[in-house]
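Ex. 9. Protein: Glutathione S-transferase family protein.
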Amino acid sequence: MAVLLELYVNDLSPFTRPIELQLEMKGLDFKRITPTRDFVREGGFGEISPIRKIPVLMVDGAVIAESRVISELIEDLYPTPPLLPEAPLDRARVRMLATIATVYLADPAVQLLGNMTEGNSQDIEARSVALIRRGLAGLEEWIAPGPYAAGETPSIADCAVAPALFFLKDILSRLGFTDCPEWGERTRACFAAMRRDADIERSLMGMEACLSEKLAQTQG
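Predicted C-alpha cells for Glutathione S-transferase family protein:
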C-alpha cells in the first residue's frame, strides 16, 4: 500500500525547497500544501505542529518537523536512489556541506530578508553577513568543482546547497540587498554545474516564479 506524503511548504523558502528537491530526485509522489503566513504563525497550523515552522512532512498522517529530520527520514524510508554515499567519511562530507548551507547560508539569509522588511538593524545585518562569509569560505574549501556538490553523483548536499546559493544570489538581490559576500571560484563553478541537473534547475525556477508573482502582487 502506497504511503501518503503531504509536505507543507513555502515556495520561497531555502528550507522547504531542499525537501521538495529530495523527494523529486527520488521520483516520489507527494502532495504540496502551501499554507498562508497567518495560518502558520497564528492560525490552525499550531494544531499540526506546535513549533509553527515549515517544512512539515506528514507520513500517513504522522507529523515530522524540522528539515534535517525530514531529510534523514526520507533517506530511511526510500533509500533508492541513494542521496547519501555508502562510505562513512563520504556521508559525513555530504552532511557537512548540507549543514553549512543551512546554518551558515540559509539561516542568515532569511534573517537578512526579515531585517530588510521589518527592522533594518545594522547589527543583525552585520552578524548575518559575517555568518554568510564563513559559510561561503567553508563551501569554497570543501565543495567539489562539479557536477555536484560532493562529486560525481547528486546527494542531499545539492538539495541544500543549490537553493541556499540561489536565495543569496537571486532572491536577496532582487529584493534590494546588494552587499552579499562574493563567492569563490569553486563555488561558482559547482553552482553552474548543479544547475544543469533538470530537477535542481526546475526547483530553482520555482523559487524564481514565486518571487516574480509576489513582486507583481506588491507592485499591482
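Check your answer against this statement. Residues 5-77 form a domain with the Glutaredoxin fold (CATH 3.40.30.10).
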